[in-house]
Amino acid sequence: MVKISLRWLLFSLLIYCGIRLLQKACNPDAPLFLASIHSLFGFASLISAAIVVAPEMASWIATPFIRVIDNIYFPQTSDPPPVNYTLAHFYREQFRYHLALQEYNKIISFHPFELKAYTEGIQTAFEANDQKSARKFFRRGHRKFSRSPNRILLKKIFDDCSHQKLI
Fold it and tell me: Residue 112 and residue 97: Cα distance in Å, rounded?
């Protein structure tokens, strides 16, 4: 951060000096030799100023062009992949609960309003004795379905699973 602010301070100083030297070079009363030296150092100062801030300016200038090129070669599709519980169910049947929970998280990331992913995630977490993950699934679902009747169903499933583990 200090280097960047010092660069911009140096840039400002070089621009100021370059403009002042070029103004002196344009003075009609100045001798030709002195005017040529002022113009030489004035242009050198302006070029140095451009070089000093080149790293920051290059990334700032190139960003819009990079976005255009990325959109041409890697277009963003607005359609999420279809919901697929096959892998999550397979992991759950194989008692690989950690991987099943990861699959439910993937489903939720692409389809945040898929109630089945939250409920099965909660059930899988309780089967794995992972109370923390079950609460995480419940909280995420509770936030997503804040104005929906699905919120009540999610709460009921969470309570049923937690009571089964207590018995």
Answer: 21
